[in-house]
Amino acid sequence: MKLISQFSNKYNNITYKTYELENGIKLLHLDNPATVDFDFALIFKAGTSFEMKEGVPKGTAHFLEHMLLNPNSTFKTKADIDRFEQGNKDRPAIYTNAYTTRKNIYLTCHANEQGDMRVLDRMESLLQFPKRKFSNQMEKERGIILAEKSRKPKREKDGYLMSLEFLFKDIQDEFAYDVLGESEDIKRITIDDLEKFYKNRYVSGNTVIAIQSNGDLRKSLTNRIEEIAKKIPLGEMDNHREVELENKWRVGTFTEDRANGVSISFIYYDKVDKRIDYKKYAIEYIYGRLLDWLTFDILREQMSLIYDFSVFRIGNMSYDYNMNGFRFVTEKEKVEKMLQELYTLLHTTSFIFLKSKRGKEWFDDVISTYVFPRTTKFNEELAENAITALLEDGEIFNSNTAVRIAKKITISDIKEYLTERLEMKPHIWVESDMTQTQMDILINNSPFSKKFNRV
């Protein structure tokens, strides 16, 4: 196991160490003096966005994740798994879990640090695919997944899924459906589908390992990790399908009969850079805080138009782009005024504020929160969240670099970013109990439509 990079994060006292194992798998170890846990994750570039590429039904990745936690050749029954994972007076319990996203499958295990070797033993067992045994367990698991699916609305009644179709249909369809698949997809998944997806995706190039613990990894642990990693077949990292997403004026609507107000989202695509642009990252943070501040102060406190205003940045909906923007909910009779006042706030008030003495004091305060962060709640998923960037040929975020660059940012940088941002055409997604025509009229009568919806 070769150390290839290391830095000590001055802002959370954690040392980030990246290793390369003998078969090329990257491992991130967070040496965290504040923990007594041993957190371990195997992460595979095997999310639902690869199902179409592999020619398997939608929901196969999630189904596979379920199957891997079932009894296998090492732990032959559920009782065997329970006995191994349970603790007693002499040993800690271990907690195994798994989850699927559109990009990855995560296999995780957490325990007190004295249970670290048992964690590794349990994680090793999850790399098996005993086809005959899984075949016998498959219908039981299918029933569980169908029950899980039954908790969700029908596809056409699910505002979230409809928003994904609005954004991605016929552009990147692999990100436009439910991770579970639809019921008809779940019913037709076969053991051969699971095996095909497992064999094609579970290779060394599509794998990273994340660990969070206190202190250096001792030799017995690193040797055991190398043994486990060698059970993952050698293979190159599989590249995702490249797409081009364009910011353009589009309005999508969803009628939700139970809605009490009108929810409006402004959504923008932002091309992902392989190397982190720390200046842009900090400016986007400050921009978000600016919108939080002004909308709370003016649209809520002075005008009573909204309760809250959410700025978001989402990185798991595309390999090539982040999605960012903002969302708010208001009453039907206030939509027209809200859109007018929001337009004025963005295009006029924000610049006046940034030029003012109060705006300069606000800017210094926001930079202060970036430079002097407070202690955050312990996050057992910190390592696995950090290392997934390596599965996309990216880099691990370094707070030291981020703060050093943030200190150099000026109000002029924020004004320049804001000016450019306000010329970007938004995708607008609206949810309410109104008809599509009624919602379209509201948006098309707004100053945003007058600016961007030009024939």
UniProtKB/TrEMBL annotation:
Q: Which Pfam families match?
A: Peptidase_M16, Peptidase_M16_C
Boundaries of every Peptidase M16 C-terminal domain copy:
189-343
Q: Can you tell me which family this protein belongs to?
A: Belongs to the peptidase M16 family.
Where would you find the membrane-spanning parts of this chain?
none
* Name listed for the protein in its UniProt record: Insulinase family protein
| InterPro entries on file | Metalloenz_LuxS/M16, Pept_M16_N, Peptidase_M16, Peptidase_M16_C
Q: Name one GO biological process term.
A: proteolysis
Per the database record, which ranges form the Peptidase M16 N-terminal domain? Answer: 39-148
- What PANTHER family does the record tag this protein with? NARDILYSIN, PROTEIN YHJJ
Record-level Gene Ontology MF annotations: metal ion binding; metallopeptidase activity
Keywords, comma-separated and alphabetical: Hydrolase, Metalloprotease, Protease, Zinc
